Amino acid sequence: MDAQYFKDLLHSRKLKATGHRINLLVLMDQYKSAMPYSSIQEAMTSMDRVTLYRTLESLKEKGIIHKAFQENNESYYAICGAECDTHDHHHDHIHFKCTSCETVTCQTTTQKVQVTLPGNEIHKVSIHVEGVCQTCVAN
Amino acid sequence: MDAQYFKDLLHSRKLKATGHRINLLVLMDQYKSAMPYSSIQEAMTSMDRVTLYRTLESLKEKGIIHKAFQENNESYYAICGAECDTHDHHHDHIHFKCTSCETVTCQTTTQKVQVTLPGNEIHKVSIHVEGVCQTCVAN
DNA sequence: AACTTAATGCATCATTGTTGCATTATCATT
DNA sequence: AATGATAATGCAACAATGATGCATTAAGTT
To answer: Are B134 and A120 a contacting pair at CB < 8 A?
Structure first.
């Protein structure tokens, strides 16, 4: 996942591959877990606040990133996996927040989570799990 | 669920039963589905904005209401059911948002939703479902 | 190199979150 | 019912984020 990868990705989604966008994506990629907005802003000081706002919007709209979590007025953003694209943006995977190290990770479902609500049409299911992650449990 | 009920409830949670608080709780109760913050504010104009903010905080803290949903920077609040109390505030029930009528309701799980993430300690599970509710499907 | 169009920066305003402090209302006690 | 302790409220003030308009700049195409 180097700069060239993101450059191509941006082009494939009809977005211009500007320096800011590539820096942002490389940053988010290196962060490994879903990145809180405040951390993104701190890291991207060269970028105007409004530009960052609009950049996140357009990357989200084109299915390159998604808002993984929102809690206590803090939003966490993550780069989309292969399962996301512009047309079909589904996130049935689980967002796990570790209350110990404060990280948010996108977990892949090991088992199929079945949710049924008789009479209702279900379009999207998001599951937020809070607990203590493997690393923190060990320590 | 009349005013007296909420007055007693507030007292039982060591909160003063002020007019504002009772009005708010009666309002939220009558709303039936989880109430968006903007609607609460519109309805409670007699109350100072800061007081409303602090009131929601304290009611939340004492397990009388909970934030059912947060999306697009809009928070939805709902009165807690019998399963909530100050000490053990668990919400394994499902929050369902109808994209047609925009209402958010707290659904009771008909089946047990089992989430397992090997190695991790799971403390809280929140499930957000988006779709079309029974009433809207019929129309 | 020139041109087209998207992206950016700056200004600006709205909304919500948050805290401090003085005033007022609630509730328990007398 | 009056009094007193304490919680609740209102107002002022500031911070953070969301959101839009417009002029300027940069990216990608020809």
So the answer is: yes
